[in-house]
Amino acid sequence: MIDHFSKTSLVQLILSGFENVPIVSFYAQTRGWPFVIAWLHRISGMLMALYIWLHIYTLSFLATPDAYDAKMKLYGSFPFSFLEWLLAAPVIFHSLNGGRLILYEIFGIRNDESMIRWVLGFSAIYFLLLGLLMIMGNQTVSPIFFWLIIFILGILPCYLVAAKVWNIAASITWKFQRISGAYLIVMIPAHLLFMHLQPAVGHDAGVVIARMQNIFIKFIDLTLVVIGLYHAGFGLTAIIRDYLKFGLLQTGLTGLIFLVMVVFGWIGIKLTLTI
Q1: Which residues of the chain have pLDDT under 50?
Q2: What angle, 0 to 180 degrees and rounded to 10, lies between the N-to-C axes of helices 215-243 and 247-274?
Q3: 7 — phi, psi (to 5°)?
């Protein structure tokens, strides 16, 4: 079945599209697809960090519901909706490819070619599904039921990864990065999906505030804020350490990222607890 899926026209279409991008095609031919996918993972991770920052910034307007509704009216216009849909592509790719990296690095499943095709295929399916839900905009779902199921599904890979890495001779920050990644693999795609199951879920201040006042939803939101920012911050600082060798610049940018994460973390936690 895996071989059949890896040869489907959908995956081949995605790869063909990438091969027509000049820089991507050059590195795919000279360094191989794993090299290209690694860079796409870093770039999509940076976009994911920007998404988290923008999301917390937007939610901060809930302190003034009318201002939040006005901003959501703007975001609901076609250009912004289209950009939001496009942003789903790097977010879901980063999540699924993160799962591939966990399987590769921690569980020793290293069939790169097949797994990369699965990641691209499922990313495309999710991307198209989300676009369909955004167009329909008439679904309903219970927030408590949805997030209870998703939370259980998110805890399972966390436990499996934690059990595997806890006794490894590595830093605690590295271990938490892998554990947080296992949690976000489930939670971030689910969050995007939930936000578009029904229009009022994210676009009406009254509905958002009522949902966030539930104690269980508060807990879920807090985990997304803290774990999401930690994972994003660690990833950004890892990129800096890998590619900036000048000590002062590396230290300065690392400190700046830490400061930004603390500020957004404080805003997100305060908003979640006081709403």
Answers
A1: 1-7
A2: 170
A3: -105, 10
